[in-house]
Amino acid sequence: MDLEFAINGERFNINSIDPSTTLLEFLRFNTPFKSVKLACGEGGCGACMVLLSKYDPELEKVKEFSINSCLTLLCSINGCSITTSEGLGNTKKGFHPIHKRFAGFHASQCGFCTPGMCISLYSALANAAGYNSSSKSNELTVSEAEKCVVGNLCRCTGYRPIVDVCKSFASDVDIEDLGFNSFWKKGENKEVMLENLPPYNPKDHLVTFPEFLKKNKKKVVYNGLDHSRYRWTTPFSIDELHNSIKSSNSGDSLKLVVGNTGTGYYKDEERFDRYIDISQIPEMSMIKKDEKGIEIGAAVTISNVIDALMEESKSFYVFKKMAAHMEKIGNRSIRNSGSIGGNLVMAQSRKFPSDITTLLLAADASVYMLNGKKTEKVRLWEFLELPSISDSRLVLLKVEIPLWTAPSGDDTELLFQSYRASPRSIGNALPYVNAAFFAVVSRQELSRSGVMVDKCLLAFGSYGGDHSIRATEVENFLTGKLLSYSVLYEAVGLLKGIIVPGKETTHAEYRKSLAVGFLFEFFYPLIENSHRICSLDPEKSLPFLSSSQQVLESNEFHPIGEAVIKVGAALQASGEAVFVDDIPTLPDCLHGAFIYSTEPLAKIKNISFSENVTPTGVFAVLTFKDIPKQGQNIGSKTLFGPGPLFADELTIYAGQRIALVVADTQKHADKAAKLAVVEYDKQNLEEPILTVEDAVKRSSFFEVHPMFYPEPVGDVLKGMQEAELKIHSAELRLKSQYFFYMEPQTALALPDEDNSVKVFSSSQAPEYVHSVIATCLGIQEHSVRVITRRVGGGFGGKAVKSMPVATACALGAYKLQRPVKMYLNRKTDMIMAGGRHPMKITYNVGFRSDGKVMALEVTMLIDAGIEPDVSPIMPRNIMGPLRKYDWGALSFDVKVCKTNLLSRTAMRAPGEVQGSYIAESIIENVASSLQMDVDAVRKINLHTYESLGKFYKHIAGDHGEYTLPLLWDKLEISSKFKERVEMVKEFNMCNVWRKKGISRVPIIHQVMHRPTPGKVSILSDGSVVVEVGGIEIGQGLWTKVQQMVAYGLGMVKCKESEELIKRIRVVQNDTLGLIQGGFTAGSTTSESSCEAVRLCCVILVERLKPTMEKSGSMTWNTLIQQAYAQAVNLSASTLYKPEYSSMEYLNYGVGVSEAKVDLVTGRTEILRSDIIYDCGKSLNPAVDLGQIEGAFVQGIGFFMMEEYTTDEKGLVVQQGTWDYHIPTVDSIPKQFNVEILNTGHHKNRVLSSKASGEPPLLLAASVHCATRAAIREARKQSLSWNCNDGNRDESGMDFELPVPATMPVVKSLCGLYSVEKYLYNVTHFKNV
After folding, report:
1. Was 745 annotated as part of a binding site?
2. Which of 67, 96, 555, 1250 is the 20 to 30 A CA-CA neighbour of 358?
3. 908: annotated binding-site residue?
């Protein structure tokens, strides 16, 4: 039969298709539905999420759940219905309440991730409504709502408003707890709030399963697809499966399929001869429970396994514990598709770090395998030791978990506990180590005080071995023993010899320490509490998320100052907002992929393909030799010079573009690029420069113009002489950070008449893209047109780094005379992005005994990479925020190093975040050396207005503009800082294995306006079209511009002018329509664009005045009609040029964060963050609030989570969502409070407004400093433990906490051997 399914209610019949085609590929290239985005291709981000509906004809029920379309094979959805965000609602049939609430809660910024978020929320609502058998009620709870987007990544919002949207649908929500929104005003009663919330009714707003599929479902169930047309077989019994395997030729490659989620991790490029869908075999998809235990078919999805294990029953205690752990595996959509059997086979055959194998080992599970026609049962540990079953024709049929029940008697207890240390607490990240422990323990009858271990099963996994293991030596040692500290100490020693990570395993010692810690966590409470198992240092858990926002709206410049909903927010939520890759592909369109260098310095001898066979679909391979003779090999440019598009005969860094493969599809282009073979010659070449130290030795630096190199402040020599104490040659290093914009780099180029090209580019700098393309092709700029409508996140990464992508497409289109589109896969994007600048800092600081700093000398080595990019501005950017404290005197030596590494570029707050943090690190060091409270040292070094002028000169502004002291004091009160400091001290005294820290951090951030163009045109019907040089990248630029135009044109004071905002549309950036657009960067482009259009409105109002005065009072439409009749020019354009006196200004903010560190795992939990930020008079407080929260959370990623590293050749190590961890909804502060201080002191600003895009990112240093404080307490405790057991931990009070402060870093500073030290001490000295 044919492959048949529905998408958004529309029938699709597919006669024949490549079985490797994913649902995402089909949706994007064969349907008009574009809400489903490709952001990672791994199932790790949620941007591709859709709703899958399956109909069961026997039960006459529909089951709905979310899946990742990037992993789901199209043939596997035969007979199913797919719903995308457009299918929930759209502009034509009306938006769904989910879309409306996303808009009204200001929960969409760039909008690229929003459709996937909507589907995740909808799926949770559908489950709660009883569509799925697992539902226990028909209403969503707050707890469920908060977790429904755990599998979705967002780089813009900081998640808080998204969680509020989800919670707004919960039946048990207190509506007053929901955050700032456009549905109600603060102070309105609950009834009004509920009335104004877009109503949701499951009967009206849940999608229905198409009737035509219900009629055909029985055919699907009993027939399956025609193998000859699809190379896809669906057996319906074990015999049919056996026959299918047997009938295939011995040389044929087979792929057994359920959810295909494994390809997200392993990214199989192999083209299989045959696909066998095993999901319809009853024996492999059943769940059977009896008094012996539970049998689970290998094809049962992990979600269904969880549901089965979770069923209420006292006898199923172990099962429920296992289910709770499984909920942290992957994300919900992965669990909805991935099967338990697939997980086990990956663990057995490909060393996948599986949680499930660890859980099953601890439960002593067995598996059944099909070997020919025979069924064999083996214990799970035996199964894991077998040769890879993927290389054989063995098939895993089912899993059997025995039922463990507590022995009779009051003195005996059955215990089961599992553990997981992962970069993210509730899933969507692989663990460093997992463990599961089963034990039967009994109290001694005589003393009734000791606990005997009667039986135990101890399983460990993900530590870097081949697979999960049972620690049988430790089990045997503990069995029959009375638990004591000395026994546990010996057990730990045995375990350390068993847990042996492989040679390539990262953080090997950390992983061993985790295994030890987990064993300790399990047994320690039994020693302390006689018999009851409990957690270490139990504490009342906080609610998942809570928040407050204090925002002041203003109508002084109506509608400026009001929380107007972001332009296109609902459109973004439904997925109808068009990004570059959403532009319909033309029939003759080609696709490009880069071949990049893997050597840092080498001659390129030859480029070919594997086995000298041109891969399928390849049309051409373009190199620097294909650049037109009249053109130049240029791929980017900045004020500081150009960068090449391709390497020539010499590649000068790993990751450099060598060639562009052009093929008929993006899939073929990407595959061909991977098959490329580049021959290198490294003879007679000097060694590459791969470190800043090497750059210094070889004097390899970029020149820094004096205008970007600040002057020193004061007399450092004198200050050092006056200092009572000094710290000499202190050193710290800061690493890089990747942008992780949700939309990867992308461009589409179309050849046009007269040798011209039109390019659609996802860029923050279309003007520069335009110029680079013209120079590369050797044509005049009037023959190039670059169009940018919106960008799916930028953060600086879509500025310079977008240029070579667009230029390569333009070169392909120009040379081949066909459209060329390129959409970088995430791995290539990460390799080429560059990211934030790493640097090495050395300093000398002199200070008084009261903590007042007298002088600071700083030396910096900045790794700029191979090209200048914008790196020469870094000294200026770094030294701005670093001067936030009164250092007395300040001198510095900053060198911008040229290395054979990928060029670094501007990333949100480039240099500023490093400079601000360096200042905090110095203050922390001073306080530590004095053994003073660090907050007191910060306070004594805050600027007075006089010292502010000394360090910042004219940029300091008027006295009234210096609001930092006000913010400092105000936040102390609102955050209850002093009271909480005392509470933290008390907590630390009472808890051994958890420590808290709290920190208050100020920021001063310098920004600068740049010339910006604007154009406002009034059309004949009275509607208004606006163009600006600034690009909408999610920061709300279009929204603020729209408000400003409404305010500016409203000055005509005619009837209906109050409603003007509804008549205004901001349109895409076109480099031939509006020139001199410059860069959208530096936080001020929104303000500058607003001022540009305000000036346009002033011109237009002046032109309209005579008509108004002549005709008297009239409506807006009448006024415009008369103006048209009188031939009044109703289009005005300007180039806003800021005056020198107001070009630069300072932004102020203060943040307080409280963090809790787990000494066993190194995990840091952000308990609370309070922010107060001076926005001047906010142009749109909703937009600014979103910018503040989003920037802060991105800062958390930099300081705490994100590792962006290179290997020994300089090639980026991280490849995607599996190993690069941006914050998720479970990473943000549990309590997140933000206050926007709306001050009117800034008359030289645009309507007294101030920037909000980048400065708040610096406040995330408060989280890092709070973590440092908690670690300090842990080290203080460790010093009090006398220990001579040979386990050495550096535990002095002087330490530097690296950035990022990941779990391994935190644990190593708290003590990798803290458990051993504790046990040794309590055994030998009994004084802990």
Report:
1. no
2. 67
3. yes
Give the integer Cα–Cα distance in Å for 781 and 772.
9
Q: What is the pLDDT of residue 1286?
A: 54
Burial status of residue 958 (CB atoms within 10 A of its CB: 0-12, 13-18, 19 or more): exposed
What's the CA gap between 359 and 340, in Å, rounded?
A: 12
Alpha carbon distance 559, 1051 (integer Å): 12
Backbone angles phi, psi at 747, to 5 degrees: -160, 155
Ligand-binding site membership of 938 (annotated): no
988, with CB counted inside 10 A (0-12, 13-18, 19+), is: buried
113 annotated ligand-binding residue = yes
What is the number of helices (H) and of strands (E) in the chain?
42, 44
DSSP, residue by residue, 887-955:
-SSEEEEEEEEE-SSPPP---SSTTHHHHHHHHHHHHHHHHHHHT--HHHHHHHTBPPHHHHHHHHGGG
Residue 901's Cβ-count burial label (10 Å; 0-12, 13-18, 19+) is buried
- Which neighbouring-strand residues pair with 1173? 1149, 1236
Q: What is the pLDDT of residue 532?
A: 45
Main-chain phi, psi angles of 777, to 5 degrees: -85, -15
Pairing of strands 1069-1070, 994-1008: unpaired
- Residues of the chain below pLDDT 50: 132-136, 531-534
Token pair in block for residue 4: 């048949």
Please report the pLDDT score of residue 447 as a whole number. 56
14 is in an annotated binding site: no
pLDDT score, position 996: 98
* Nearest-angstrom CA–CA distance, 31 and 28: 6
The alpha carbon torsion through 286, 288, 294, 297 (nearest 10 deg) reads: -10
Residue-wise pLDDT for 761-815, tens only, equals 999 999 999 999 999 999 999 999 999 999 999 999 999 999 999 999 999 999 9
Give exposure, 368-389, as e/b (b: 16+ Cβ within 10 Å): bbbeeeeeeeeebbebbeeeeb
pTM equals: 0.97
Q: What is the pLDDT of residues 691-725, one digit of tens each?
A: 999 999 999 999 999 999 999 999 999 999 999 99
Would you please indicate which residues are annotated as catalytic (active-site) residues? 1254
The residue among 483, 476, 557, 566 whose CA lies nearest residue 1033 is: 566
